[in-house]
Amino acid sequence: MNLVLGLEPGTPARTADVEVDGRAFKSITVDRHDLFNLWSGPYGEHEVVVRVYGHGVAAYAFTFGQ
After folding, report:
1. Beta carbons of 28 and 16 less than 8 angstroms apart
2. Which of 5, 33, 34, 64 is the most buried (most CB within 10 A)?
3. Would you call 50 helix, strand, or coil by DSSP?
């Protein structure tokens, strides 16, 4: 699962934590507009939570698959 993320003008880099099915999976640093990989794993029903610390982060589009 991927997510296009970016920063509002003048916003410093922000950290985001990704949880999958209630477990911490990874942390990412959002420092530019880009496609960020959130999770790669078996297909099926999963709960993915993205916790962004701070303000000024914009999320645009999810993509699924490889």
Report:
1. yes
2. 5
3. strand
Domain boundaries, the chain: 2-63
Sequence letter at residue 39: W
| pLDDT number for residue 66 | 63
pTM above 0.85? yes
End-to-end C-alpha distance for the chain, whole angstroms: 8
Contacts 24+ apart (CB under 8 A), 27-33: 30/5, 30/6, 30/57, 31/7, 32/6, 32/7, 33/4, 33/5, 33/6, 33/7
At residue 32, what is the residue type? R
**Residues 6 or more apart in contact with residue 14 via CB below 8 angstroms:** 7, 29, 30, 31, 52, 53, 54, 56, 57
